[in-house]
Amino acid sequence: MASVEIVDVRKSYGDQAVIHGVSIAISNGEFVALVGPSGCGKSTLLRMIAGLEEITGGDVKIGDKVVNGLPPKDRDIAMVFQNYALYPHKTVAENMGFALKLRKTPKAEIDQRVKRAAEILDLMPYLNRYPRQLSGGQRQRVAMGRAIVRAPQVFLFDEPLSNLDAKLRVQMRAEIKELHQRLKTTTVYVTHDQVEAMTMADRIVVLHDGIVEQIGTPLELYDRPNNLFVAGFIGSPAMNMFKGTIRAGAHPHFETADGTRLPLASAPAGSDGLAAIYGIRPEHLTLGGDLKPTVTVIEPTGSETQVIAKLAGEKIIGVFRERVNVKPGESVAMSPDLSLVHLFDAKTGNRIS
Amino acid sequence: MPRTLGRILIYTALILWTIIALFPIFWTFSTTFKVAKDVQLGHIIPWVDFKPSWLGLRAIGLSPDTIFTESTPRAEFIKRFWNSIQASIGASILALILGSMAAYGLSRYSYHWKIWKNRDISFFFLSQLILPPVVLAMPFLVLYKELALLDSMIGLILIYTLSVLPIVIWIMKDQFDTIPQELEQAALVDGCSIWGAFFRIILPIALPGMVAAFILSVILCWNEYFFAALLTSSYAKTLPVMVASQTGSQGISWWSMAALSSAAILPLIIIGIFLERYIVKGLTTGSVK
Fold first, then answer.
1. Contact, B151 vs B241, CB < 8 A?
2. Least confident of A219-228, B56-65, B70-79, B141-150
3. For chains A and B, what is the number of CB pairs under 8 angstroms?
4. Inter-chain contact A85–B180, Cβ cutoff 8 Å?
5. CB–CB of A43/A190 below 8 Å?
6. How far is B151 from chain A (nearest CA, A)?
């Protein structure tokens, strides 16, 4: 196990810069998720840690050693790929033992370590099969087995669950998390799925266009997003947002372009008249109150009801534990939890605290 | 009923086509056992049209009565046969080694040289096939004369390597393109060097394609006549050249030509029957599914 430190790392292809100085410190044994929309540079960053991609500027340290110039084989890392990348001409056992064989580990020890990993991952019956004879979930497990038999310093995961169906994905999510709690190996996990990142990671790094938007624990990102991008990216369904102006005074409130008033607990100092974005998460709306949006769609899921409606020309989504007895076209009364309203500067997109 | 009728029609067509396809081979084999009169009269069916004779095989010393005696034509034939084997197998192995590496490079790395990129390099290789070999005849003759490669086995192997290289590169590039890059990357992370990943992971997976490319290039080299006739005279002459030389001043010795042709076709028929599925597999399927 080792810490991983990324210091002002940059990457460009020719003149095209894709990563503009990213710094992340990952401590020993931590599970960090790199999350962001496609093309944000998260996979490139992971591949730079692995040594599969050259580093244009900055340093990558594993342990306390700068590994910029080292080939992947000398970095003591293991990686799980999106398409599993199992060797099709080798059996499951050979796939898992390949790295040890390359290191000239004695055969008895390879067998023993492969067996132990196979027991952890429920792969014992499949050790002599070939990858093509396995289901997607089993292949995924073999890919993980290949990583864990080596007991490397760092695990790298590159969207490992995106080729699985929804049910299996949820199951494997829990398995990977459990595996991490058991092995306590430093893990860097790339995903585009914020739910995956939220549920699995100790800390999340939100990347966008090659820069870090915010680093924090899942709940920090959820409770206090630093900017509009993180606010919109973390949480599902996404946060409702309204453009308008902050009005301080005796009755502080937020006024949208068409004059709709949204309530505020208090206006931040010196923010009177500031053009801003008002954000409220769907689950922080309660039924009853002053807002009267017009319902467009009702989506009951049993445990909760999702109401999609229109307010001040914008879409507003509310998620309620209660049953909602309204029809599309009617209006429904709701109100935001004032302590959970987020305000962002319309110009910079940054949070106004 | 119409289904049965359809089947009958399909099978009739298939049988007809089989006869058309196999007839030249049958004719070649049967002509081995004909005398001049039978050839000229167009006799086809043995024992009915004509009485088989050992004339053709005797001409190359392979008939029952000559096979255990000293025979100059047989020694000549075996020498040519051996030359053909050396030239086609040697050139195919060389082309496979060079072609696989070139194809791997084209499939995995991006090359830039001035305005030329991978696609242009690939096209350059393939464009060699467009060029008629006749264009190369004179230059090669001059070149080989200067390098003292005329009528040498090495010279023949080199020119055959050159002529099958484009096809080998083409097949192997196709093959490497179907192998996901993550496989090498996984191998690199697991502890291989770049060469290690190529030899331990990529080559075994690309094996069906390599077998196909190898067989195809053996067939192409085996059949090659033009350069063999041009660049060899006595020492390195191959079987096709010997077959062609059976037309002499006394006319064509059909029987011995047919006997030689049969011997030349035989290896290809064996390849066709036993290795055809490897060719199809190598050329049609991607490696990993």
1. no
2. B56-65
3. 60
4. yes
5. yes
6. 44
Q: Which of B216, B231, B91 has its CA nearest to residue B149?
A: B231
Secondary element (H or E) of residue B11: helix B2-31
Mean pLDDT value of segment A101-125: 91
B182 to chain A, minimum CA–CA distance in Å? 6
| Gap between the Cα atoms of A317 and B278, Å rounded | 60
Question: Could you report the per-residue pLDDT of B247-279, keeping only the tens digit for each?
Answer: 776 777 788 888 888 888 888 888 888 887 777
For residue B191, the chain A residues in CB contact (below 8 A) are 73, 99, 102-103
Cα–Cα distance measured from residue B180 to residue B178, given in angstroms and rounded to the nearest whole number? 6
- Amino acid type, A30: E
ipTM over 0.95: no
**In angstroms, rounded to a whole number, what is the distance separating the alpha carbons of residues B56 and A168?**
72
CATH architecture observed for domain B72-284: Orthogonal Bundle (1.10)
Average pLDDT, chain B: 86
pLDDT at B288 over 70: no
The torsion region of residue A41 among left (phi > 0), alpha (psi -120 to 50) and beta comes to: left
Q: Which CATH number fits domain A4-231: 3.40.50.720, 3.20.20.70, 3.30.470.20, 3.40.50.300?
A: 3.40.50.300
- The pLDDT confidence band at residue B185, using thresholds 50, 70 and 90, is very high
Q: Inform me whether the C-beta atom of residue A132 falls under 8 Å from chain B C-beta atoms.
A: yes
Q: What is the identity of the amino acid at B73?
A: P
B38 against A77, higher pLDDT: A77
A73, A76, A134, A135: best to mutate for the B interface, most B CBs within 10 A = A73
Q: How far is CA A105 from the centre of its chain?
A: 37
Indicate if the pLDDT at residue B289 is higher than 70.
no
Question: pLDDT grade, residue B287 (50/70/90)?
Answer: very low
Residue in chain A nearest B183 by alpha carbon: A85
- What residue ranges do the domains of chain A occupy? 4-231, 237-345
State which amino acid sits at residue B200: R
On the question of pLDDT at A135 being above 70, the answer is yes
Whether chain B has a CB inside 8 Å of the CB on A130: the answer is no
Q: Are A324 and A298 in contact (CB under 8 A)?
A: yes
Which amino acid, B28?
T
Q: Is the pLDDT of residue A341 over 90?
A: yes
Tokens for B14, please give them.
């298939």
Q: Which of A52, A83, A103 sits opposite B191 (nearest CB)?
A: A103
pLDDT at B133: 82
What value does the mean pLDDT take over residues A157-174?
88
DSSP string, B124-157: HHHHTTTS-HHHHHHHHHHHHHHTT-TT-HHHHH
Tokens of A319: 């998620």
Comparison of pLDDT for B217 and B285, the residue scoring more: B217
What CATH superfamily classification does A237-345 receive? Nucleic acid-binding proteins (2.40.50.140)
Q: Give A345 or B63, the one with higher predicted confidence.
A: A345
Residue B194 has pLDDT above 80, yes or no: yes
- Cβ pair A278, A289 in contact under 8 A: no
Q: Quick one: which of A81, A23, A18, A24 has its CA closest to A52?
A: A81
Q: For chain B, which residues make up each domain, given as ranges? A: 19-53, 72-284
Helix (H) or strand (E) holding B197: helix B194-197
What is the DSSP secondary-structure string of B225-278? -HHHHHH-SSSS--HHHHHHTTEETTEE-HHHHHHHHHHHHHHHHHHHHHHHHH
pLDDT at B1: 65
Beta pairing partners, A128? none
CB A227 within 8 A of CB A349: yes
